[in-house]
Design goal:
Length: 141
């Protein structure tokens, strides 16, 4: 495992723990002013779901694709990873149905899924752009 792969993995794990902490703190009503500040800074509840999911998506793809090592087609790995991420969003939102201080909202899921998809598209575009730049540098030599 390369240093880059280890750093990608650690960054993803750190962010996943951060997201879990956010939802736990909000459910337990801990750090309420700080959580309200984060939500307001990101443009409100719906945009918060979008941006947090977008960042999650940007962080997960290099980890997943790096661990695959070409064993499975990238499209299959991407599909099942996206499915797993959507399932995690559903579980996170569903648990709010059972907590009196929280509320379940389909729009939160929709904004989260949109963030995941935009993150995937951005990651693919970034990788294609970098790949094309590498090709042009090699072609110039």
């Amino acid at each position: 495992m390369t240093l880059k792969s280890k750093l990608n993995f650690l960054l993803f794990i750190f962010y996943a723990v951060f997201l879990a902490a956010l939802t736990i703190f909000k459910s337990l009503k801990i750090f309420t002013p700080e959580l309200a500040f984060i939500e307001a800074s990101l443009g409100g509840d719906k945009l918060e779901h979008f941006f947090l999911a977008l960042l999650l998506s940007l962080l997960v793809w290099p980890v997943v694709w790096g661990f695959n090592h070409g064993r499975l087609p990238k499209v299959i790995v991407t599909f099942f990873t996206l499915l797993l991420l959507v399932f995690a969003l559903l579980l996170d939102e569903l648990h709010q149905f059972f907590i009196s201080s929280r509320h379940f909202d389909w729009q939160d899921i929709a904004f989260g899924v949109a963030g995941l998809l935009v993150g995937l598209i951005l990651r693919v575009l970034i990788m294609r752009f970098l790949f094309l730049n590498k090709l042009s540098v090699v072609a110039k030599k």
